[in-house]
From TrEMBL:
The keyword Cell inner membrane does not apply. This is Cytochrome P450. It comes from Haloferax mediterranei (strain ATCC 33500 / DSM 1411 / JCM 8866 / NBRC 14739 / NCIMB 2177 / R-4). GO terms for molecular function: heme binding; iron ion binding; monooxygenase activity; oxidoreductase activity, acting on paired donors, with incorporation or reduction of molecular oxygen. Residues 426-448 are annotated as: Disordered.
């Protein structure tokens, strides 16, 4: 039972009339400011941003309350839905209650462990195709390359679509869509799409192009031109026996899977490559590990490799796909002894929590060796949650981790590389945690 007896609200910096703390947010780097606020005011901090009460919650026990123990009292909420509904509609990321349960149930078979294991060959095939286009000595915009690769993987694996043979330019559309959300992610200031600003016009054009492509994918499945085992075919079949599904619902889920299933994985690959390239001892151990795999058993051995799992876990700790998870309480609640009124925006900042020195020794260091089985089992789900936690834990976690392992393993076996460290790795909050500047990587094929 959720406690709602507290009367005191969390501390926080003083604001100014009407604007609250909005001006302070605009003057700071959001991720650094969140960390500074937690250091200054404690694990519960209250702000007034753009007329909304924002409560930053960095206490692992309270995170578990919100995401696991009392999750039914917290929903995605009005602000988050208002900002992203034009893109994600009523897809799995934004749906709540009965609708969320229905959609989750329909999608779960596609991400069953046995089904995910079958995607390994798709990942390997698309990765080999991506690497084949790289010339020795080329300096790559690595995130852009990984975005192209992970989009090809998700489209092939889930939708039976070969993006490389189509005339669509989904990456440009996605880039314009993400640009639209960067300003909101940095400031919490939302300009409704119906206001014809230049940014909004670009966004609506890109969204229209994306929706047109997705509609074509659905229609090609409906005509029987795609695999009957694809997610789209399964959803179309499900729609025939469920009043809760129609073409719009299917489109929302496909866009949600495309966005959530390729962008975050590409970013994780980019950040992990940067961290390996700037930590020689870890790179050498990781390369030695993947070099030891037998060619005929590569997929099996890379999937089971504990060291690669530790490298990925540590990368996701330092650079989680989302810098924060947001919820809104449906009733007044008490968290950490503080009153949080219904309708408040609760921010659960992985960026700050994952760098808590009480949990992680030398928290800013890239140290995969910390992730022994003993240590991993000692870390609470409220202290480390790159894929969220509780019933709404990311449905594609297994798929993402398998893809990360295979792509990293293949990359390290085939290429030597250098990361351009002249440009520091700064990040920008958007729909995900993104590099502020391109991550440049020079690649050279290793001798046979």
């Amino acid at each position: 039972m959720i406690d709602n007896t507290a009367t005191q609200t969390p501390p926080g910096p003083d604001g100014i009339p009407f604007f609250g703390n909005t001006h302070q947010l605009l003057q700071h780097d959001l991720l650094s400011w969140m960390t500074e606020l937690v250091e200054s005011y404690g694990e519960f901090v209250q702000l007034n941003v753009a007329g909304k009460r924002l409560v930053v919650v960095a206490d692992p026990n309270a995170v578990e309350t919100v995401l696991i123990d009392e999750n039914e009292c917290f929903e995605k909420g009005g602000f988050q839905k208002k900002v992203t509904a034009s893109l994600l509609g009523e897809g799995l990321v934004l749906a709540d209650g009965k609708q969320w349960r229905e959609h989750r149930h329909a999608l779960e078979p596609a991400f069953h462990p046995q089904q995910v294991a079958r995607f390994a060959e798709v990942i390997q095939k698309q990765t080999a195709r991506q690497f084949a286009g790289w010339s020795d000595g080329t300096v790559l915009d690595f995130d852009s390359e990984m975005q192209e690769l992970t989009l090809a993987v998700i489209a092939d694996g889930l939708f039976d679509v070969d993006t490389r043979s189509e005339t669509w330019d989904l990456e440009t559309s996605f880039a314009q869509v993400l640009d639209h959300f960067e300003r909101v992610g940095q400031t919490y200031i939302y300009v409704p799409e119906w206001i014809p600003t230049p940014r909004n016009r670009r966004y609506k054009r890109a969204l229209s192009e994306l929706e047109t492509v997705v509609d074509e994918i659905i229609e090609s499945h409906a005509r029987g031109e795609r695999s009957e085992e694809s997610v789209v075919s399964k959803l179309l079949s499900h729609a025939e026996s469920s009043a809760d599904w129609d073409r719009n619902a299917i489109r929302d889920e496909i866009i949600t899977l495309l966005v959530a299933g390729h962008e975050t994985t590409a970013l994780a690959l980019t950040f992990t490559t940067y961290l390996l390239g700037t930590t020689p001892s870890v790179l050498q151990r990781t390369r030695d590990t993947v070099d030891s795999f037998e060619e005929s058993r590569f997929l099996e051995q890379v999937r089971e490799c504990e060291w690669l799992e530790q490298v990925i876990d540590e990368s996701l700790r330092l650079y989680p796909p989302a810098y924060s998870i947001f919820r809104e309480p449906t009733t007044d609640v008490t968290l950490g002894g503080y009153r949080v009124p219904a309708g408040s925006i609760i921010a659960l900042p992985q960026w700050a929590i994952h760098r808590d020195s009480d949990v992680f020794d030398a928290p800013t260091e890239f140290r995969p060796s910390r992730w022994t089985n003993e240590f991993a089992s000692s870390v609470s789900p409220g202290a480390y949650f790159p894929f969220a936690a509780g019933p709404r834990r990311c449905i594609g976690e297994r798929f993402a981790k398998l893809e990360l392992k295979i792509v990293l393993g293949m990359f390290l076996r085939e290429f030597d590389f250098e990361v351009n460290t002249e440009t520091p790795l700064d990040v920008t909050p958007s729909l995900s945690t993104r590099p502020t500047e391109p991550v440049r990587v020079r690649v050279q094929r290793r001798p046979e």
